[in-house]
Design brief:
With 311 residues, the protein is an alpha/beta fold. It is built from eight helices and twelve strands.
């Protein structure tokens, strides 16, 4: 029996999900489900609390799953490394969960095609309020990351809540073109971008996101995404430093460029040569011909916290 690519995507997991199902790993803190009511609808999220918080307040990282994914799935994929770091350096990790597994940003091709519209902007705002009101969160150190459409969610919260989000780290996602209209000028957001050059779903050099034969919206090129944030943060156009990361000596390599001479906040790019639509050092959650390869030269969770911890 011949099985189509679309069948694989729907039967296993839509690739824009970050939906690998490995265990979260040995950490000493706790991961629990919580509910919140937004627009008369019960929404839920997962919250990881470190084993202890010694200081008066602690940072918070929001981790967004991709389209077709869940909070549970991305917590397993990312939490294997991130929860251990959270225990060591004492910060909270929250995993929001989308209705029908798809974030609705109120604009863009995917949102406009949804049968049921959801105000996720209101959900994100209510969730941040909930977490800062019930936990000792350092409100000056709230960060966001996510893979694929979760990466889009990272850009989204930075654009619509620039006074609340200190820095973001989108993975496998350049800036969506429609989001330029949602991102008024408001400097002061650090950005670290992790994109694979061989991503078969989201083009590194810009254009239409494609899942099977379906187009899922246009993205800027990675270089144009960097340029957007350099201008926003008033950074010099020449990187402050550049480095090649290739500890294994294999065919893949990561080029890290940092723009740190900025009036506001730095911008980083991790150009993952040969990398696919994957979380660096994550799992190969679908076959390579569907999502490309996982890079293991870096652990995205480690690099992301290294960046966030600077703020």
């Amino acid at each position: 029996m011949k099985i189509s690519l679309t069948t694989i995507l729907l039967a296993v997991c839509i690739p824009l999900a970050g939906c690998a199902g490995s265990n979260a790993g040995a950490a000493d803190g706790s991961l629990h489900k919580h509910t919140i009511t937004v627009d008369e609808r019960e929404r839920f999220y997962l919250l990881y609390k470190p084993e202890r918080v010694v200081g008066d307040v602690a940072p918070l990282i929001l981790v967004f799953h991709g389209g077709g994914g869940t909070a549970k799935g991305i917590s397993r994929e990312v939490g294997r490394s991130l929860h251990k770091i959270a225990d060591r350096d004492e910060f909270f990790v929250a995993y929001p969960d989308a209705v029908n597994k798809t974030w609705d940003f109120g604009a863009g091709e995917i949102s406009e095609s949804l049968d049921e519209r959801i105000d996720d902007r209101a959900y994100f705002a209510a969730l941040i309020d909930e977490l800062t009101n019930t936990l000792p969160v350092d409100t000056d150190r709230i960060f966001a990351t996510g893979i694929s459409r979760g990466g889009q969610a990272s850009y989204f919260v930075a654009c619509v809540f620039p006074e609340r989000i200190r820095a973001i780290a989108p993975v496998a996602m350049p800036m969506p073109k429609f989001m330029l209209d949602l991102c008024p000028y408001a400097p002061g957001t650090g950005v670290a971008i992790f994109n694979g050059t061989d991503d078969p779903l989201v083009p590194y050099d810009g254009g239409q996101i494609k899942v099977g034969r379906r187009e899922r919206g246009e993205v800027l090129s990675t270089d144009d995404t960097v340029a957007f944030w350099l201008e926003r943060n008033h950074c010099e156009s020449t990187p402050t430093n550049e480095a090649a990361i290739d500890p294994t000596g294999r065919s893949m390599r990561v080029y890290r460029s940092a723009w740190e001479k900025c009036e506001y906040d730095p911008v980083l790019l991790y150009r993952i040569e040969g990398g696919g639509h994957t979380w660096p050092s994550g799992t190969q959650y679908l076959p390579r011909f569907v999502i490309g390869r996982v890079n293991r030269d870096i652990d995205a969770a480690v690099e992301i916290w290294s960046f966030f911890s600077r703020f």
